[in-house]
Structure to design on (788 residues):
């Protein structure tokens, strides 16, 4: 159809389509409303289109879009062609997506499992319905009956601007947390489909702002916050001074770019000064100091997080991850240890080896790379840290399993180490630990509500509603067992929950990191049993 | 008159043999094509096991066996769906085993033993199907995501089960000896070619049997184009079949071998 038109006609039609699209996707500010805490997670009635208005902002900075390799002027004129070409490419490169397009039987096991559905009641937030947005296109354009008999025959959908709007809306209301795939009889992973959909949207020029701005910064500057290396050095020096002053010790350090250190420590850049993240940074520093491990942070690899994971764009993820392994070689370290972050740990643990391995230059005696909780627990077990649990006496602690940690990889080489190891660390430094209700933790954990690219302020309505299940579960543990602290191992969870707690009427101070607790309990100075 | 009857008989025989071979061809070719080119040949770039996932091959096999035989993942959610789904699949499987008696000359012990419970099994199967069907209609969430294809697959299988159950009764029962002889005839290597040159085997002249067979053929033809591919697809699901040992063993991305 496009061949019959001249290039000019096509172009002007294209820019009209783009103008319409910009109008349809225009960001509107919606005031988020938190529900009352009752301790119960109720499955809502269907409220069609209730979240249709919530759309994240589009990225419009040309320099960034060009660097990322996406169209710089909004929706491209020949978007249908580009769309199908990209989809075809992904279907050929990702078995997960290809297979999951085919084998869903729509049994409904997942319909009430998504925190966004539980929080909103919007039927398109049911995982299977979210997947169907893509499956309709798949059936129409990528199956034989669809090609032969059209979309009505296969219950498919022809490409249209309305469809793009639906994709942009609902694939940015999925936090790729994989809770639905736990209950799926075939392990269909909505995250894989969401990642693919986001990359297809990117290819036609509909690029979400928050996430892709960060991918740009991480690739060009080296961290999600866009801090130059001098700023990082300053920030960490400031933290070090603060720590030394607090503890009245001048030998505790936060080393930066020190060649020949044993450990390269990577952590989300939020840990450098955001609250409550920074408390965990104190904790890491105390652990390394007390264990006598020589460690360093890096200005080159100043970010552990890797937002490239959130879209099926392998190159983005690989580029961001590269900095860590460059830093590891340049600083000639023996081990790489990752701090508290969910998706960072997934990329570091599961994907690094594929993208930049083999790590034969690292010390084979340690897991490559290692999680800070693995390291700390090992030290605790060996008695290398002197702990005073009474420092955390005021807390009754519970733990929120971060989605990517609990459902995307192991810790300690055990299938359920990712649940047991952080809990063992917490128990090792606190007297009182209570778990939240069983259906909300471990493999069934609820996402904090802002993971995988939804932490932007423009996504607040989604974030508040998506946080509901976690908030109710916490509230119940609070009512029943007097819990007053939730320990986290993810920077995004920390940022999200420290905002959601006040929104739901709970004190912000009840949110913190696992190593915040560790840091409080370590007795510095007295070296025994190393 | 005799000529007309012979003509009709010939056409019925041609139809029955024809659909059996056509259905088998579409099913086998379609299934293998999809599994081989669609699932097996499509690369999986990264390790994405959905954890907690075993860290050894043996552990993964046990986990997958739990999913296949006991619907372990499904059992974590709604009990009704899990029970109805499992009863449906397992009873279906038993009924298939029971059908072995038509395909081998000497019937094995366990197959004939199943005969005693066959009606019970079939009834359970039907009840499970009805529950699944009704659930799609009345559960608002499931109803929202259900489309014609979902009801169609259930209805088709219900039709097969219903005609199967009816044949149990004297009034509709085909001549079992004829049926078995016909099935064994169809299994001989030269039969497809005989059908092609318009020399079909004589089929049992029982309309219920022919209906039953036609519905089965329809199911087989529908199979490779539909969600029923979950049967083969499950085994390729990367969240389930990958070993959780990314740090121990380097996984190579087939399209980025580094």
């Amino acid at each position: 159809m496009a061949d019959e038109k001249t290039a000019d006609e096509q172009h002007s039609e294209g820019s009209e389509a783009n103008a319409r699209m910009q109008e349809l996707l225009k960001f509107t500010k919606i005031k988020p409303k938190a529900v009352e805490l009752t301790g119960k997670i109720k499955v809502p009635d269907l409220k069609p289109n209730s979240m249709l208005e919530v759309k994240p902002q589009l990225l419009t900075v040309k320099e960034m879009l060009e660097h990322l390799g996406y169209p710089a002027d909004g929706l491209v004129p020949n978007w249908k062609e580009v769309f199908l070409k990209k989809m075809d490419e992904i279907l050929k490169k990702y078995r997960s997506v290809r297979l999951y397009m085919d084998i869903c039987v729509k049994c409904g096991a997942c319909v009430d499992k998504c925190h966004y559905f539980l929080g909103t009641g919007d039927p398109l937030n049911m995982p299977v319905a979210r997947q169907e947005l893509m499956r309709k296109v798949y059936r129409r354009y990528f199956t034989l009956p669809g090609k032969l008999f059209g979309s009505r025959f296969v219950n498919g959908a022809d490409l249209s601007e309305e469809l793009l709007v639906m994709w942009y809306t609902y694939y940015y209301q999925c936090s790729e947390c994989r809770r639905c795939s736990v209950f799926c009889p075939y392990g269909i992973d909505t995250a894989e489909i969401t990642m693919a959909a986001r990359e297809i949207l990117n290819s036609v020029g509909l690029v979400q702002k928050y996430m892709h701005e960060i991918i740009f910064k991480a690739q060009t500057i080296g961290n999600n916050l866009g801090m130059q290396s001098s700023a990082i050095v300053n920030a960490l020096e400031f933290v070090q001074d603060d720590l030394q002053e607090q503890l009245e010790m001048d030998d505790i350090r936060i080393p930066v770019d020190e060649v020949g250190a044993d450990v390269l420590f990577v952590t989300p850049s939020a840990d450098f000064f955001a609250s409550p993240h920074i408390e965990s940074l104190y904790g890491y520093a105390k652990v390394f100091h007390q264990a006598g491990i020589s460690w360093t942070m890096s200005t080159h690899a100043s970010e552990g997080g890797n937002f490239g994971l959130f879209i099926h764009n392998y190159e983005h993820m690989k580029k961001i991850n590269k900095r860590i392994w460059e830093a590891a070689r340049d600083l000639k370290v023996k081990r790489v240890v990752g701090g508290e972050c969910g998706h960072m740990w997934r990329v570091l643990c599961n994907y690094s080896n594929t993208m930049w391995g083999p790590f034969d230059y690292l010390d084979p005696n340690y897991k490559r790379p290692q999680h800070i909780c693995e390291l700390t627990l090992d030290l605790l077990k060996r008695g290398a840290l002197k702990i005073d649990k009474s420092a955390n006496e005021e807390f009754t602690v519970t733990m929120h399993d971060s989605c990517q940690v609990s459902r995307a990889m192991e810790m300690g080489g055990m299938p359920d180490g990712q649940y047991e190891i952080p809990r063992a660390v917490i128990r090792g430094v606190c007297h009182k630990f209570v778990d939240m209700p069983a259906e909300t933790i471990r493999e069934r954990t609820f996402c904090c509500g802002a993971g995988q690219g939804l932490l932007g302020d423009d996504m607040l309505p989604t974030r508040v509603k998506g946080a509901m299940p976690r908030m109710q579960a916490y509230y119940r543990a609070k009512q029943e067992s007097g819990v007053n602290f939730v320990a986290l191992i993810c920077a995004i969870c920390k940022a999200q929950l420290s905002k959601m707690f006040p929104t739901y009427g709970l004190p912000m101070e009840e949110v913190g990191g696992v190593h915040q607790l560790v840091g409080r309990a370590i007795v510095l100075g007295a070296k025994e049993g190393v | 008159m005799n000529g007309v009857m012979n003509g009709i008989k010939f056409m019925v025989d041609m139809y029955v043999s024809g659909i059996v071979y056509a259905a088998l061809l579409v099913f086998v070719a379609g299934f293998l094509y999809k599994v081989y080119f669609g699932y097996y040949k499509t690369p999986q770039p990264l390790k994405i096991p959905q954890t907690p996932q075993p860290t050894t091959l043996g552990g993964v096999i046990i986990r997958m066996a739990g999913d296949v035989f006991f619907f372990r993942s499904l059992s974590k959610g709604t009990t009704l769906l899990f029970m109805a789904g499992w009863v449906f699949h397992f009873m279906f499987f038993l009924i298939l085993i029971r059908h072995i008696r038509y395909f081998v000359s000497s019937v094995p012990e366990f197959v004939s033993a199943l005969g005693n419970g066959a009606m019970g099994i079939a009834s359970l199967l039907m009840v499970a199907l009805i529950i699944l069907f009704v659930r799609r209609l009345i559960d608002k969430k499931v109803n929202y995501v259900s489309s014609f294809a979902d009801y169609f697959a259930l209805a088709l299988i219900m039709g097969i089960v219903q005609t199967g159950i009816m044949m149990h009764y004297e009034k509709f029962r085909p001549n079992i000896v004829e049926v078995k002889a016909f099935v064994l005839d169809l299994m001989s290597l030269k039969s497809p070619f005989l059908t092609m040159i318009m020399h079909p085997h004589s089929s049992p002249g029982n309309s219920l049997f022919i209906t039953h067979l036609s519905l089965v053929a329809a199911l087989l033809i529908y199979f490779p184009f539909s969600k029923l591919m979950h049967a083969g697809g499950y085994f390729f699901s990367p969240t389930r079949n990958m070993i959780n040992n990314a740090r121990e063993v380097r996984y190579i991305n087939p399209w980025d071998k580094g």
Remarks:
- Chain B has 13 helices and no strands.
